[in-house]
Amino acid sequence: MERHRALIFVDVETPPPTPPLEISIYQIADDAVFQGHRIDGTGWDWSWANWQRDWMDETPSKFAYRCLPLTIANQTGWWVYNPVGFTAVWRGQAAPGGVQFLFDSDQGLWSQWIGDQFGQGIITWNTPFLFRTKPAGSRLMVCGPINCFKHGIQPLTAIIESDWMSMSFTMNWKITAPNAVIRFDRGEPLFQLIPMAGNICTDLEQAKVRYMKLADDAEVSRAYQEWNEGRRKFHEQKKTGEVRPDDWQKDYFRGRDVFGREVASGHKTKVTPPGIEYLSKKP
């Protein structure tokens, strides 16, 4: 007797696609404080972040640009530029009002935008934008211009719940050396804005995290040992002249592993700025 096996079909629910990131940039200040509407050379301005850095240009053969993680970070997001040149000195007081400012132009105007309202040697810029993002849970990271440096002062970094916030935000830099003369020029990048489609805090709280020794994962261990040995041989070949002094290994740059396999998903060597739909003319 012939036997028949019943086929049972189970509906597997397909997870909904991740909604695309949406970014709305609202100008909350009058056109009169934007660079394109002023005759004194001051004013707010913004653009996509530049991938180049002066100090990277000055490295021999510009080798710093070979570090793809650096150059990708450099050019991710938007820059907002400092609206007016000024010099500042903090005498070390904890209370607000302890930073002395000398503005290059229109002190009456720009002292309303730039001050030290929090004390502790913190310079605060009131910013002319409101950012809103979708989907729910999306965030906005506000930080100093990435891989840029300034003596005696450091930018503070913030993560904003931009999926619901309906208020402006401030950009803050903390002076680290009392009595040091701090200089900001007009038009130098002041901060970088990086929208994030997910809630990084929740993602981390719910993440599955494991700790182990390298030998506990045979596949990763083999790949690392192969890379480490190849790296060692490469530097030895440089010393003996078998490899040019300015040559470099390009596996990461090309998105491939040490065995020559292209394994990277979504690998990028540059970030293309998204198009912007201007519902109002950019000032």
Number of strands: 14
Q: Residue ranges: pLDDT <50 for 5 or more in a row? A: none
What name does CATH use for the topology of the largest domain? Deoxyuridine 5'-Triphosphate Nucleotidohydrolase, Chain A
In DSSP terms (H or I, runs of 4 or more residues), the helix count works out at 6
Helix content: 10-25%
Q: What is the average per-residue confidence, as pLDDT, rounded to a whole number?
A: 91
Q: For the largest beta sheet, what order do the strands appear in spatially? A: 2-3-14-9-11
Number of domains: 2
Distance from N terminus to C terminus (CA atoms, Å) equals 84 Å
Strand share of the residues? 15-25%
CATH architect. name of the largest domain: Distorted Sandwich
Q: Can you write the helix and strand succession as a string?
A: EEHHEEEHEEEEEEEEEHHH
The CATH C-level name of the largest domain is Mainly Beta
Considering the protein shown, what is the CATH homologous superfamily of the largest domain?
Deoxyuridine triphosphatase (dUTPase)
Characterize the main sheet. 5 strands, antiparallel
**What overall form do the CA principal axes indicate?**
globular
List keywords for this structure.
alpha+beta; 2 domains; five-stranded antiparallel beta sheet; four-stranded antiparallel beta sheet
Structure write-up:
The chain has 283 residues and is of the alpha+beta class. The protein has two domains: 22-205, Deoxyuridine 5'-Triphosphate Nucleotidohydrolase, Chain A (Distorted Sandwich), CATH 2.70.40; 214-254. It is 17% helix and 23% strand. It contains six helices and 14 strands. The protein has helices spanning 54-57, 68-74, 107-110, 200-205, 218-240, 251-254; strands at 22-27, 45-48, 78-81, 86-90, 99-103, 114-115, 122-126, 129-134, 139-143, 153-155, 158-160, 170-175, 181-184, 189-196. The protein has a five-stranded antiparallel β-sheet with strand order 2-3-14-9-11, with no helix packed on it. A four-stranded antiparallel β-sheet has the order 6-7-12-10, with no helix packed on it. The longest helix is centred in the last third of the chain and has 23 residues, at 218-240.
